[in-house]
Every structure is written in C-alpha cells, then in structure tokens.
Write a structure and sequence with these properties.
transmembrane helix; elongated; two-stranded antiparallel ribbon; alpha+beta; transmembrane; MacB_PCD; lipoprotein; ABC3_permease_C
C-alpha cells in the first residue's frame, strides 16, 4: 500500500459521522441504484424482445420461401421441395427448414361460424417453440399411416366458438368441389399476438395435401430459421440471388414490421433513459469529490507544505472515489440481479396479456450486457472522480492552511 492509498484509507475511517460521510453514502446509493436500474431495464427489455420474437418465429421463422403470386393469397401455389431443400441445407447459415402449407376454412359449430387459416406443419420439423405456446391440452399427435385429425386452436378462436380440448368441429373448405372435414381440438395455444391468435389454426400438412390433391413432394412453402438472426439481411440477400425466378423470399421483419418497429422504439427509449441515469450518477460523484476536497482543504495545504506533490494528493482522492465506486457497483449488482432472480423464478409482477403479449414481466439473462453495464459504470464513475481532483493543483499551501 503506497502513501496515497494509506491516507485515503485513514480518511475513510475518519469521516464517519461527518457531513462527508452522508455525502459519500448518497454517492454509493446513486451508483448502486443507477446500475441496478440499468441491469433490470436491460434484462426486461431483452426479455420482451426474446419472448415476442420467439412467439413470432414459432409461426413464421426468419425467412419464408414460397411461390411468387401477384394475388397475395394466403393459399400459395405449391413448390417442389427436394432440390430446394438440398440447396438450403448446404448453406452454413441455415439452422432448420420447415415445410408448411396454408388453407382457408370456415369452422362451424352449433352456435357459431368463424373463418380461419389452417397452417399445416410437418411432424419431423415442427418447431419446439410452437409447443411452448400451448395453454391447454396437448400437441398434435401425428400418425405414420394417415393424416392426423388433431388441430390446435388459439384461445381467442376457441372462446369465440365455445370449443374446448377434446371437442370436435366441422371445417368447411371453399373449393371445387367443396370439402368438409371433422377435426378434433387436441390443444389450445396462446401467443398474445392478435396477428396469430385471431386467425391461425395449426394442423397436419398432410390434410392440406390431401385436400389440394398434392403429392408428398409438394408444399406451400418453406420456413427457414437461421443460426444467427442478426445476419438476417445479408443471408436473405444471398439466398434471394440463388432462388428460381418463380419463387419469392419474405423476411419476418417485413411481414410483421409493426412489431419489430415497436421493439426498436423500446430500444431507443431505454437508451435515452440509461443515458440520463448515468448522467445523474456521474454528477453525484463529481459533487461528492468536490465536497471531500473542500472539507479537506486544510489537510491538502499541510500535505503540500511538507512536500506532497499534486499527483500524490490527487491519487489519494482517486483511491477514495475508487472505493466508493466499487461499493456502489457491488450493491448495484446485488439489488439488480436479486430483483431479476426473484422475478425470473417466482414471477411476482404480472402483466395484462391483452396489452403486453405475455402474462408476466419477462427476464433474459445476457451476461455480456451485464458485464458491459458494469464496465461502463466503473469507467464513467472513475472519470467523474478525476475531473474535480484537478482542482487540487490550484490550491496554495498558505491559503489552504488558513482556510476555514
């Protein structure tokens, strides 16, 4: 321990009960609360982003390849999948490929009639995230020998039609000739996103193939999930250049642009909020060090009179500020991570699914962001400590000793 650290340590103990002690406590609380709020804000923001993105991806994946159609119909013309599948599987950026098909239908019960879109999925490639949306019942039971009669309804559709798990319902398909099928409600899902919950019914893709008289090699389209969603644009551009002229490529960010724009808006608001928090914490630290210097002006004059350099005295206050910063960061992490852990495991704070797309405040653990927030708080606080210490060079020993 050098002289500056030793004196800084002694001052820390001598300040107990003084005005400076109260100010230093405020500085520690300011750093702690600022860091805690930043940790919690980013954990909740990332939680919202991941929850909503996962709900969207469970219905649409990152990219969708389908037949080019100027009518913009939900029932796209079929495409052959074997060759296209081979090309996509050779792409190192592609994680999974899921064939799908859509068909419009009218559900009729004893008292209600409702138009829906059936999305047929494949047993081998059905996304696990879709299963996580189940609110009641079980997922579709696929059969090796025939198409499954099981379907998944959303909570909203089930409530409108007054259907529950295990009920049977008639689905009418407007085509030539018209068809009718009886399906069993095996499960009820809930995403909280009206774009899906008000329209989509999940079923077996083989039912749609049978209704359209398609062979097993034809599908309505392919949903492609990438290994890294952040590379969506460059990968989409690369895939598009290699597609046949009669195929189109849709990005999930363009299909549901309002949801993704809302997430970007959340990002901007949180960044502005965090800048204000850091500014307040920095201002408090600068004010604290200024007060320390003013209260220790006599001591600074004595130290200069006996030969202490400006750098030595400046280091003394720097180590004092460093001690406050470390304590503030410790308590900030304890409060912030503690709050996140309680919400993550016990969910004490609920949300209205109608407005927030989920029933509780989500928490996402991104340790790289948490580390970045700690480093940013540490460096900003140290910079705030250094600014007022340069006032020491302007203090004259004789005037400082007489200072009262």
């Amino acid at each position: 321990m050098n002289v500056s650290q030793y004196i800084s340590h002694k001052i820390d103990g001598a300040d107990a009960g003084s005005f400076t002690s109260s100010v230093t406590k405020i500085a520690i609380i300011s750093i702690a609360m600022g860091l805690a709020v930043m940790v919690v804000s980013f954990a909740i923001l990332e939680g919202f982003r991941n929850e909503i993105q996962n709900k969207i991806f469970s219905f649409g994946s990152h990219l969708q390849i389908s037949k080019y159609d100027t009518n913009n119909s939900l029932e796209a013309e079929p495409i052959g999948q074997p060759r296209l599948l081979r090309e996509l599987r050779d792409n190192p950026q592609v994680a999974t490929i899921q064939p799908f098909a859509r068909k419009t239908a009218i559900i009729k019960t004893k008292d209600e009639v409702l138009g829906v879109v059936i999305k047929g999925i494949d047993e081998k490639t059905s996304p696990s995230s879709m299963r996580q949306n189940l609110a009641a019942g079980k997922f579709i039971t696929f059969s090796d020998s025939a198409a499954s009669n099981d379907v998944l309804l959303s909570r909203k559709v089930a409530d409108k039609l007054r259907l529950k798990v295990g009920d049977k319902a008639l689905f009418y398909f407007i085509q030539n000739p018209p068809r009718v099928r009886q399906f069993v409600v095996s499960g009820i899902y809930q995403t909280g996103l009206d774009e899906f919950d008000e329209a989509f019914v999940i079923g077996d893709i083989r039912q749609i193939r049978d209704l359209n008289a398609w062979p097993d090699t034809l599908v309505g389209g392919l949903e492609v999930t990438l290994k890294n969603f952040n590379r969506l644009d460059p990968v989409a551009d690369n895939l598009y250049e290699n597609l046949r002229y009669d195929l189109k490529l849709d990005k999930i960010t363009e299909q549901y642009v309002q949801l993704f724009e809302w997430l970007k808006l959340l990002n901007r608001n949180v960044v502005i909020f965090l800048v204000l928090i850091i500014f307040v914490a920095t201002f408090n630290m600068v004010a604290t060090i200024f007060i320390m210097i003013l209260e220790r002006t006599n001591m600074i004059g004595v130290l200069k009179a006996i030969g202490a350099t400006d750098n030595q005295i400046r280091s003394m206050f720097f180590f004092r500020g460093l001690s406050l910063t470390v304590r503030g960061i410790f308590w900030g992490n304890l409060i912030g991570l503690g709050f996140c852990a309680v919400q993550y495991f016990f969910h004490p704070i609920p949300l209205d699914p109608e407005n927030y797309y989920m029933d509780r405040v989500p928490i996402h653990w991104d340790w790289s962001i948490i580390l970045l927030l700690n480093v940013a708080t540490f460096l900003t606080s140290l910079l705030a400590v250094l600014i007022p210490t340069y006032l020491i060079a302007r203090i004259k020993p004789v005037a400082a000793i007489k200072f009262d």
